[in-house]
Design brief:
Blueprint (H helix, E strand, L loop, with lengths): L3 E4 L5 H14 L7 H10 L7 E6 L5 E9 L8 E8 L8 H15 L4 E7 L2 H9 L3 E12 L16 E5 L8 H12 L12 H9 L10 E5 L2 E10 L4 E9 L8 H15 L4 E7 L3 H10 L2 E12 H5 L1
């Protein structure tokens, strides 16, 4: 039986919990919570035309979900995204196709030219994407670290002159320096879809107030009082920690500050009771991959970014 596709119902806790259950089953390397799903729906920028779709079987059970919208932060017009997930126990029933069809119809109505989708680098997932007209681009890795398996790299014997460690919580009164740092690091991040975080109010609404952003475990490195590097942490409150972004501002690169930030954040995560750490890196981001290997992270899965020209298929 073909699944029924509908939108997430804002304020309906059962919907958010269903999305989390499907995402965790399909992609267990993501840090996701019902609070974050509800937050994303409530805080989405209207310019993104974001929709969160849910696929239900005949018994009303959510068996798939997809997030779809416009890449409004990109300076390149016409870019969009669609990321679909189907519960592995319910694959092969046409649910992914139904989700993708609904997502592409939405994007076509919004005038999107190109859709990007992350696809697990496994034969079945790749074949599905290619059957639907998507073509592979760059890849990225999920990495996992068992925080209890072996000791973390130690703190340096002493911080260099002028270097201080802070947390994001220390910037609660004025997070603008963190916005500026995030914007610069994001602009330099490898990827197919460039992003410009030039809207401070949007950043506050969608990033700073994200309930999964753990401000106490997010480490900020200051050099002579200025933000030089940071690692942003997301947690699920159930033992799982994720690096949302680690970056160093251009003027401070090559000094080991990103590694220092991660060292501090991971040590405090372990002390707070977290047992698993996850992160993701573009396959071509060798400097960050090297840092994570030194901490003991191991690749646990790979995704490939696929793209489809929606204009050619809508004619």
């Amino acid at each position: 039986m073909t699944a029924t596709i509908r939108d997430l119902r804002p304020g309906h806790p059962g919907d958010a919990e269903s999305v989390v259950r499907v995402r965790r089953a399909a992609l267990p390397f993501l840090i996701t919570t019902a609070a974050r799903v509800a937050f994303e729906a409530a805080s989405a920028n209207p310019a993104g035309r974001r929709r969160l779709l849910i696929a239900e079987n005949g018994d009303g059970l959510a068996i798939g979900t997809a997030e779809v919208g416009l890449a409004y932060e990109s300076p390149t017009p016409g870019l969009a995204y669609v990321n679909a997930y189907v519960d592995p126990a319910h694959r092969g029933l046409g649910t992914g196709t139904a989700l993708l069809r609904a997502a592409e119809e939405h994007l076509a109505a919004e005038g999107s030219a190109h859709a990007y989708a992350w696809v697990l680098d496994e034969p079945g997932h790749r074949a599905f994407a290619e059957r639907h007209g998507y073509r592979p681009s760059r890849s990225a890795h999920f990495l996992r670290l068992d925080l209890t398996a072996r000791p973390l790299p130690p703190y340096p014997a002493g911080l260099p002159a002028g270097v201080e460690l802070r947390t994001a919580s220390d910037f609660a009164a004025d997070p603008r320096p963190l916005h500026a740092a995030d914007a610069e690091a994001t602009a330099d991040e490898p990827g197919d879809v460039p992003a410009e975080l030039d809207d401070y109010e949007d950043w506050l609404r969608t990033v700073w107030h994200d309930p999964s952003l753990d401000k106490d475990l997010t480490t900020v490195v200051l050099v002579d009082g200025a933000v030089a590097a940071f690692t942003a942490a997301r947690t699920d409150g159930a033992g799982r920690y994720g690096s949302a972004m680690t970056g160093t501002l251009r003027a401070y690169r090559g000094r080991g500050l990103a590694s220092l930030a991660k060292t501090d954040s991971l040590h405090r995560a372990l002390a707070a009771g977290y047992t698993e750490a996850f992160t993701g890196n573009d396959a071509g981001n060798e400097p960050m991959l090297a840092i994570n290997r030194r901490f003991g992270y191991e690749i646990c899965a790979t995704e490939t970014r696929y793209t489809k020209n929606l204009e050619s298929t809508s004619r």
